């Protein structure tokens, strides 16, 4: 039976919101702007905005191996509640998808419990240990969406270079967490002013940018498609900008928290403000926003990284890096950037749905006839206070608890099925 969404507004090519309808048949968009087919089940869009389901190329679902932090079920339910319908799962699980066997095992888990589309990464090195290289061609053949050792930087240039060469041969994308271990200095937040006030060890900006600089040169030499994770510093933005100018095939993502927060916002030694890379200085935040606006940075990714309350309880030094992101990303960005006129709604939707799909060569992120019916219905006028205790994620680790934001997803549709509906 067909599903018919009526009373809905969609962005047109000029970025204007126009009234329309969407007809869904067999999980696909069958028509846009037509009248209701007979016998169709009707969804009342209530005049809300319909976006292509968001695409997040950088998430951590923790299963297998760390189910106390998150499972594929809780993580994908959280994604659906945030309006995400396609997510790419990073490989820092136990086991790591570093072999066909492990990747197939993880694909089986996804099949059993995911409520949205989960595309698993393959790792660049065995066990993400940075030593033995994985077989990129084989893992790609078995469905690895791209390749990364996220969680750690690949320390040896030769390892990265050789993996980039292998990736280039089969058209795989190398996705890098850039961090030079010799420049971390035991840091738990940005090396600047605020870490000194709090008496905490700092991670200098160059810890990230130096590895991006290395990698863009390696990507050029290898002819590889290279994507930079969670860019956080102004020097990183400049390096990516220069690399693009030089014709190197590089793309980059930025996380909502790095666009919204800076080190001086950190109120105290509270691990809900600890993530990797850390919140940087005000000028860095500014450079990230400019980087998005001028096309240096291609998309937004949450880096959803759940950890338990126990792990995050007791200050930054002992806690793991990472914050959750799915359920706050759109409302926060909409409120802080679209409502204030810094971004347009179309830009935000491009960066959260269309662009990430495009740069990862995925056939999603657009509302068009024939595409999978992955849709997020958003009430742009609804205002709510963020309450971490309401998250569908197991993770409560967010610095945004108690923030007010507008623009909440009220329904998420994945392949024609409702996978999230706002609780009344
Ligand atoms: N971003 C984080 O702070 N943490 C991530 C790892 C990562 O993305 O590097 C995690 O897996 O917890
Ligand atoms: Zn990372
Ligand atoms: Zn990550």
From TrEMBL:
Zn(2+) 1 binds at residues 58, 60, 150, 303. GO terms for molecular function: allantoinase activity; dihydroorotase activity; zinc ion binding. One of its GO terms (cellular component) is cytoplasm. The keyword Hydrolase applies. Zn(2+) 2 binds at residues 150, 177, 230. Its cofactor is Zn(2+). Keywords: Hydrolase, Metal-binding, Pyrimidine biosynthesis, Zinc. Binds 2 Zn(2+) ions per subunit. It catalyses: (S)-dihydroorotate + H2O = N-carbamoyl-L-aspartate + H(+). Its EC number is 3.5.2.3. Pathway: Pyrimidine metabolism; UMP biosynthesis via de novo pathway; (S)-dihydroorotate from bicarbonate: step 3/3. CDD domains: DHOase_IIa (cd01317). Residues 48-236 form the Dihydroorotase catalytic domain. GO terms for biological process: 'de novo' UMP biosynthetic process; purine nucleobase catabolic process. InterPro entries: DHOase (IPR004722), DHOase/Allantoinase_Hydrolase (IPR050138), DHOase_cat (IPR024403), Dihydroorotase_CS (IPR002195), Metal-dep_hydrolase_composite (IPR011059), Metal_Hydrolase (IPR032466). The active site is at residue 303. Substrate binds at residues 60-62, 92, 276, 307, 321-322. NCBIfam families: PRK09357.1-2, pyrC_multi. Belongs to the metallo-dependent hydrolases superfamily. DHOase family. Class I DHOase subfamily. This is Dihydroorotase. It comes from Ureibacillus thermosphaericus. The gene is pyrC.
